[in-house]
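Teaching soon. Got one?

===
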Amino acid sequence: MAETVKRKQTGAPGRRLSRDLIVQTALAQIDRAGAQGLSMRSLAQELGVEAMSLYRYVHGREDLLEGVVALLMGDLTANLDEQLSEHWQGFLQTVAHEVRRIAIEHPKAFPLVATRHPAAPWLRPPLRSIEVVDTFLSTLIAHGFNDAQAVDAYRSFSSFLLGQLLLESAVRGAETGPVEEPLDEGNADIPEGDGQITLADTAPEVRRLRPLLSEDRSDEEFEVTLEVLLDRLNRDLSQ
């Protein structure tokens, strides 16, 4: 009996309960069944603990989903290196293929990256991590882009990835609508998700270019993207 109680308090044998373990287990559950069915209770059951013990490490389901997004973005950050290519085109290809790899490996979790409100309104899914955006901007600027061109590239590149990879995720069986947010079982505080974040010294380009990133240019972006598509179709037709 004592052994059973101990297992319920600390989790499965050989695994010490931690935020990292909880978030990784949540991602594995989402990979199997999608985010809609994830709950603190189902997670606790898989970990072999009481549901309330999870709240020592996560603030509730909302915080848990944010943790999953952060885990996926951390995977992207770990595989980005601005020195991988001498050319900005090669860097963008690396970014695109790394994001696509995440979408393919975790098709049922990728819509979280694509649809959840980012930490600040000027961050865009799926390139929604401050670290990723800072690497993106600093790399393009180092390759000759001016500030406005680098920000425009971030906007258009994000839109391309979002549309293409969200569609791929849907084809692979993902629910692409926003995850419904039921009340947390433990009445956990829901973290404020928008705007008021402190930019550390590790993201100098994001901090410097925040005014440009905050501009709403959606109408112009839509028209430019549409024109690019029409031009490509016209070239195909004339060949």
The CA atoms of residues 136 and 154 lie 7 Å apart. The domain at 72-238 is CATH 1.10.357 (Tetracycline Repressor; domain 2). The longest helix spans residues 147-171. Residues 1-14, 182-196 have pLDDT under 50 and may be disordered.
